[in-house]
Amino acid sequence: MKKRAVLGLVMILAGCFLIATSILWDTAPHPWPAMLRGAGAFLLTFGIGDAIGMKADPAHQKRERIEYNDERNIAIWNRAGAVSGKVLQWVVLAVAWAAVGFWGISFRVFWAALGLCAAKSLLELLLVLRYQKEM
Q1: N or C: which terminus of the chain has fewer CB atoms within 10 Å of its end residue's CB?
Q2: Spatial CB neighbours of 46, under 8 Å, sequence gap ≥ 6
Q3: Shortest CA distance to 39 belongs to which of 57, 16, 58, 56?
Q4: At what angle do helices 71-103 and 107-134 cross, to 10 degrees?
């Protein structure tokens, strides 16, 4: 719990720092101050929410910690991550293909996306083989 409290405090301070920096560096044509202000507001609100949630209910925190470390939930998260990775892989490839076909982007973009998808599939295969040996 102590690490989480320190993390919440760091997020609050970083958010305040980013907002202050964006106010001091407010130049009209530059998009950076607005981006800093948005990131600072996110960190500030997330840090405050985390700090409030930690103080709320210790029993609820204990239930959340047990549920988070449950093997079934870990397996569900791993499976969801694997499926989302596959979906994202094919979406990236389809967008690259559409970019070449519809917008006339260089074919190198498609080949780069194809190479990334092949590298991801190869890495996935190697990790499956490694985990099968370990288990």
Answers
A1: C
A2: 11, 15
A3: 16
A4: 160
pTM attached to this predicted model: 0.49
Close Cβ partners of 8 (under 8 Å, ≥ 6 residues apart): 47, 48, 50, 51, 54
User: Using one digit for the tens of pLDDT, what is the confidence trace for 97-109?
Assistant: 888 888 888 888 8
pLDDT tens digit sequence for 12-52 = 999 999 888 888 877 657 777 888 888 889 888 888 887 77
Helix/strand/coil for 74: helix
Q: Is the distance from CB of 15 to CB of 47 less than 8 angstroms?
A: yes
The tens digit of pLDDT for each residue in 48-102 reads 887 777 666 677 678 777 877 888 888 888 888 888 888 988 899 898 888 888 8
The CA distances from residue 110 to 5, 90, 94, 114, 119, in Å, are 45, 12, 9, 6, 14
